[in-house]
Design goal:
Radius of gyration: 15 Å
Shape: globular
Largest sheet: 4 strands, antiparallel
Number of helices: 2
Strand content: 35-45%
Helix content: 10-25%
Structural class: alpha+beta
Order of helices and strands: EEEHEEEEH
Number of strands: 7
Distance between the termini: 28 Å
Length: 139
């Protein structure tokens, strides 16, 4: 589960954890926990909090009392032109909210559109990682 305030921008090269991460791959990006201030986390923060979520109490920047602690995605199904995702955001290890998304591969768009730019970028990161792993497995 990634931190819900983590805006993934590019794959984090140089760190290949043994397990598949919540967004599929390791990502670098920015912290958006403060809406008016973007922060570039260092490698330790990316490895310990941003890519894994549940940063409340572990990350000095995560001080929000409201809202979710983590977000996770899962592929529910895929056909030739569409990938269907399930998502859940959690607070205190319990569901905070949840839903589903459909991603058009040819159109490179979601339906419905994810709520907010951070959530959309996380969903896109997950899709990119999923498609990359799937292409690699076919080789």
């Amino acid at each position: 589960m990634a931190c819900p305030y983590f805006l993934p921008l590019e794959r984090f090269h140089g760190w290949e954890p043994a397990a598949v991460l919540p967004l599929g791959d390791a990502w670098s990006g920015t912290c958006q926990v403060q809406a008016d201030c973007s922060y570039q986390p260092g490698d330790p923060e990316l490895k310990e909090s941003c890519n894994f979520g549940y940063a409340r109490g572990r990350c000095a920047r995560f001080h929000r009392e409201d809202g979710p602690d983590a977000v996770r995605f899962a592929v529910r199904g895929q056909d030739a032109g569409e990938i269907r995702l399930l998502w859940v955001r959690e607070a205190d290890h319990r569901p905070f909210d949840h839903g589903s998304l459909a991603y058009s591969i040819a159109g490179d768009k979601f339906n419905p559109l994810p709520s907010g730019p951070i959530f959309e970028k996380q969903a896109r990161a997950y899709i990119q990682s999923y498609l990359r792993r799937k292409a690699r497995a076919r080789k």
